[in-house]
Amino acid sequence: MSKEMWDQRFSEPNYAYGKQPNAFIKEMSERLPKDSKIGCFAEGEGRNGVYLAKMGHDVTILDQSDQGLKKAQQLAKEEDVSIETLQGDLTKMEMEPEQFNAAVMVFGHVPKQDQSFLMEQMIRSVKPGGHILFEVYSENQLTYGTGGPKTTEMLYAPEDVLRWIKDYKCLHFYYGEVERNEGERHNGLGHVIQGLIQK
What we know:
Layout: H1 3-10, H2 23-28, E1 37-41, H3 47-54, E2 58-63, H4 66-78, E3 84-87, E4 100-106, H5 112-124, E5 126-137, H6 158-165, E6 169-182, E7 186-198
Parallel strand pairs: 1-2, 1-4, 2-3, 4-5
Antiparallel strand pairs: 5-7, 6-7
Helix pairs in contact: 1-4
């Protein structure tokens, strides 16, 4: 999905996925050490990053969409918190190693050939002992039609995810159904892959 497509989607006045954090991030955020430096990958309009900033974390939001990052700054201002933003193509951008205490990614859907690179760079960006937290739609999501990409090419397979995280301590892994009601774009029962790993 191109930068132009995301810029167009995020230029609409409403927040495409709402202003509230993803339920899994909210549930797992208590496990992140206080005052962490967190990178939020493919974060779009900033709902998760702003939530984490409100908890006292030092947050950098990374996304390819300038419009999304503008709205993330707008949301941060509304909530009276400060965030950093970094624009770039996360399927090509090599991350500076060990800069964050944690990395977060919610529904960061990229083509299959780029998925392992995105995960590697998230892990690379985190210090030893730090956490990587993610929720993505699985390939099964196509049959649900409640959000996410309309092609398996942009969805995730559990066996791939397990392969990418096998060298790290897995604190949580889930493959199955969840209810998600997030703005106009994610509504109803869906099929996800969740993970929390420690580097």
